[in-house]
Amino acid sequence: MIKSLFFLVRIIAAxxxxxxxxxxxxxxxxxxxxxxxxxxxxxxxxxGLIVAAxxxxxxxxxxxxxxxxxxxxxxxxxxxxxxxQIEVPFEAGETFDLLDAAIRELPRSEEIExxxxxxxxxxxxxxxxTYGRRPLGRYNPLNWFGVPRNQILALVAPRDGSGSVTLxxxxxxxxxxxxxxxxxxxxxxxxxAITRAIARRVAxxxxxxxxxxxQTVTEKELTVAKLSLLHAQxxxxxxxNTLASAQYLTRTDPARADEMLGHLIQYLRHSLPRTEDALxxxxxxxxxxxxxxxxxxxxxxxxxxxQIEVPDALRQTPLPPMMLQTLxxxxxxxxxxxxxxxxxxxxxxxxxxxxxxxxxxxDGEGFGAQPGxxxxxLKNVRERLRLVYGADASLAVVANFPNGVxxxxxxxxAFDRDARHG
Length: 422
Prior knowledge:
The protein has a domain at about 255-420: 2-Layer Sandwich (Heat Shock Protein 90), CATH 3.30.565.10. It is built from ten helices and twelve strands. It has helices spanning about 1-30, 40-70, 75-80, 90-105, 185-250, 255-270, 280-300, 325-335, 375-390, 415-420, and strands at about 80-90, 110-115, 120-125, 150-160, 165-170, 280, 305-310, 320, 345-350, 355-360, 395-400, 405-410. The protein is rod-shaped.
């Protein structure tokens, strides 16, 4: 109540002083008979009373509208000139884009000047006829000062990983005009609208990020489920054939049967379930693949040859489990088994800068053969690489020369999962 009363007194006092000065000036003018100081000041005071009625009416309307917009009355809300300090949790460039878009979407905005290099936006905003056209039009004293437009100045100050917005909304007239006229809360409305628009865009960005994270988690769970299903389908088949071969060899070649069972134990030891996010190493995955290939060499005999070239220095490279195994199984199943003469499987690893490339190649049927699989194995490998490494890893499958296929997984030489997802 005190704030409202002080606001009314201030405006009325300013107009009173103005008309008092005008009355003195009127009295000092020469009268009709040529004498000075004889002019009656009452016409000026009468006009002053009429103006006071418009001023008080406009001031009360301003008070009412500010209360409707802000929900309260205080000095900052009643002011014609509004300032906001807004902290945005995005880097300065993104903050500037949000700010620029919010100002451009403001109703009646025009003459927008956007300078991205200096991180500032200037704009003019036409002031609406809040209560319709004012009575008396241009003769209304409330229209005698200033221009019926507002202006906006917005600056973005870079912070450590964020942006700080300084927003100023004010009339397009000198500060002296604030003593005589009100803006009907239009600059308060503009400042609040821009603040809400920025908050809405920040919240929308957060929702999109949360949705993307949720989608990634869902995709990851789906991929793991598919991989588990694939293993559930492949492992029993492989175990059945291996045990059947070992049973046969126990009667015909016990030494080779013992060797096969040893490799099977080695293979199963490296196939024990891991936690979902646990990474293996290239060395551990290579031991599993070697055990698998040794079992197949006993079963396939001279139809299968294996060549492995993996430097010891690369064996500690982090690698998701079962990826190398999937490539080896594909080389056997789709490359060599369909050929009556069999062939060779190569497992190679090399370092290229900060990345390690692991290649599984064969000289089997190649891409020209009749497709015998669904491609779910390679699809799972690609999806798991994306989920674990993002854009830092890849899978390339190309034709081998002169026959066969070469599949190469490229992963970072050193990888910290927690650092990437932190």
